[in-house]
Amino acid sequence: MTSPDTRNDREKVVSKLPSRLRQELKVRAAQFGIDIQDAVDAEITTWRGLGSNLSPIDTAGAESFATFLPPEQWAGFRADCKDRGVSLIQGLAQSVQLWLDSNPSPAVRRPAITRRIVVCNQKGGVGKTAITAGAGEALAEDPSVLVPVRVSKHFAALLEEDGEGNVPLALEDLPGLGQRVLLVDFDPQGHLTKQLGHEPLPMGGDSLTNHMAGDGKGELRDVIVTIDEDRFGGRLHLLPACTDAFLLDVRLASVRAREAALERALAPLEGDYDVVLVDCPPSLGLSMDAASYYGRRRPEEVAGNSGVLIVVQAEDSSADAYDLLTSQIEDMRSDLALDLDYLGIVVNHYDARRGYIATSSLQSWMDIKDPRVVGVIGDLKEQKEAVRVKRPLLAYAPRCEQSVALRALAREISK
Ligand SMILES: Nc1ncnc2c1ncn2[C@@H]1O[C@H](COP(=O)(O)OP(=O)(O)OP(=O)(O)O)[C@@H](O)[C@H]1O
Ligand SMILES: [Mg+2]
Q: Three-state SS string across 129-171, please?
C-alpha cells in the first residue's frame, strides 16, 4: 500500500515486520543517529543487490510496519521479491536482518581518563544528592534500550511555558549511555546511601574516611555495593557513607597533603569505572577542598572531562551561597594552582507555576553564562516518592518528567 509523502518527496509504504526486528531496527537506527526510513532504504538496496536468496526468516506474528521510501524503491523491491519467489514480508524481514548484521551495535564510548564529577553547594537541601543519583543513573542506563530524553538545546524555552507548567521542549527516544558508574556518598549524613536502599557502613570497619586517613584495613573496593536494577545492568555502584565521616577533619589533621586524600583513596578504583560522581556534604572546608582537588583537570585530560557541577535552586537565596562557593573554588584554584573546570550549573526544584520568582531567578542563573546552566530539573513528586520507597528515580519512574530531564543533563555534561 503506498501514498505520497508530501514532506520529503518519499512515499509512505505499509507492510509487516516481526516485532523483534522492528524493535531492533528502532534501537539500532537510534544508536547510529539515523532515521529508520534511511536504514530501511539502505537495507532494501543491499538486499536487492544480493546475488542469491538468503535463508528464510521466521515471520510468524509479524505486525504492521510503516515507513517512507524514495519513489520507485518499493515498486522495484516488490518486483524483485516476486522474481525471487519470496513474499514481500519475507523480503523485508531479510533486508532488515541483513542491515542489522552488517551494522552491529556501536561500542559504548568510554572516556580515556575516568571522569570525576563533584556535585556540590554548601547550601543544604538544594538537591545535590538527588542530582548525583539521577545523573549517575542516567549515565548507567542500558545502551540497547531506548529511553525518553528531553532535548534541552535551549533552556530559554522553559521560560515560554504555557501557564500550566507545560514547556515546549521536544522529547526524543535515545539509547542509554551504558557507562560504568561509581556513586560516592561523601556526606556523613548518608542520604545517598539510604535513598538507594542501602545501609551506611558500620563504624569501626573499612570506610572511605579510613582510607583517606591512611588507615584502610582492606581494599576499599570490597565495601562497594551494586545498585540492583535491570536497566543499570550491574553498571551502577555505590560507595556507601559511614558515620565516621563526621570526624573527617580531625582524622585528616595529621595527614600529609590533605587535599589529595580523596584522590589517594579513590584512585585505585578508577580502572573499574567510566565515571565517578561525588555527592558532597553541605559544607565548605576540608571535605570540599579534597573533593575539588579530586575533580581537577589532570595532565593529559581534556577540559570539561571532569570538574564541579553546582546545584542551585530557582530562588534568590541560592545566589549568596553560590557566590560563597565559587569564591572558595577560585581560592583553591589559585592557592593550589589547580585547573578546575566547572561542568555547569543545575537549576533544581524549578516550578514555573510559582511565577515571576521562579522565572526571573532561572533567567538570572542563565545570565551567568560562564559557567552555564546545563540542566533544569522540575520540582516533582516522583523524586520524593522514589526516596520514600528507597529506589533509584530512573527505575521507579523511568518516564517521568524528572527522569527525562536528568537524562538530558547526563548527555549535556558528557559532550
Ligand atoms: N527536583 C526535585 N523535586 C522534588 N523533590 C526534590 C527535588 N530535588 C530534591 N528533592 C527533595 O528535596 C530534599 C532535599 O534534596 P537533596 O537531599 O537531594 O538535597 P541536598 O542538597 O543533597 O541536601 P543536603 O545539603 O542535606 O545534602 C529531598 O527530600 C529530595 O528528595
Ligand atoms: Mg545531600
A: HHHHHHHHHHHHCCCCCEEEEECCCCHHHHHHCCCCCCCCCCE
